[in-house]
């Protein structure tokens, strides 16, 4: 991968546990500037917890989470807030505020954190709606009146509001049909390109993981199993990676999941 000067996101030996359950076990990961990376793994492998450690929603017990070379784990509250303003985040199931119209959902960070005047914030929100393929007519609707695909687009518009340097997207196509999945993936790539952003997504869609991203990291039982360019996936002989990517019933993942039981 790229030299250290190109690394925008770096995780070094990150460990996170909940009670006696080790969820992340010495996870290390580099993401280079302007790369669109994806994190994959079986259920309960630690993917979403890793994203939450990255954006400061969980604090690891040990290890470093570096953004542009700055370890963010022990930042003071004000420093962390300033750092997080550089991020756009799309949570699983979009996580829109039911009580706010679409435009205020999109402009929420701009109004609350950046103190942008409401008229200017609305104008910015309308611009972002256009970027994700939605018309201005949607701006004053409530989230409950939108289809699943439209809610995903609004969530993406909120993530790119303020033109962030980093995009963190948790399962952005979960629950969508193949057509909407393809559309959302194209919008994500478009937004990453237009912003010049560095992006990390989680997905359970292996076809998207293979086709839509520059780099892929597989995590299993809290450990990184494989990491590299998506172009190298088929050349890998790692049995975990090949089982997951190709959706095979037999393999090491199945045996380990059964041994652990439900989680």
UniProtKB/TrEMBL annotation:
Query: What's a Gene Ontology MF term here?
Result: ATP binding
- The EC number(s) this enzyme carries: 3.6.3.-
Q: What is this protein called?
A: Putative amino-acid import ATP-binding protein YxeO
Q: Which SUPFAM superfamilies match?
A: P-loop containing nucleoside triphosphate hydrolases
Name the encoding gene, please.
yxeO
Keywords linked to the UniProt accession: ATP-binding, Hydrolase, Nucleotide-binding, Transport
The protein's enzyme class: hydrolase
Is-annotated flag, keyword NAD?
Answer: no
The record lists the lineage as:
Bacteria, Pseudomonadati, Pseudomonadota, Alphaproteobacteria, Sneathiellales
Under the heading Pfam families, the entry gives: ABC_tran
- Which InterPro entries does the UniProt record give? AAA+_ATPase (IPR003593), ABC_transporter-like_ATP-bd (IPR003439), ABC_transporter-like_CS (IPR017871), P-loop_NTPase (IPR027417)
Superkingdom field: Bacteria
**Taking every annotated instance into account, which residue ranges of this chain make up the domain ABC transporter?**
9-246
Q: Does the keyword ATP-binding apply?
A: yes
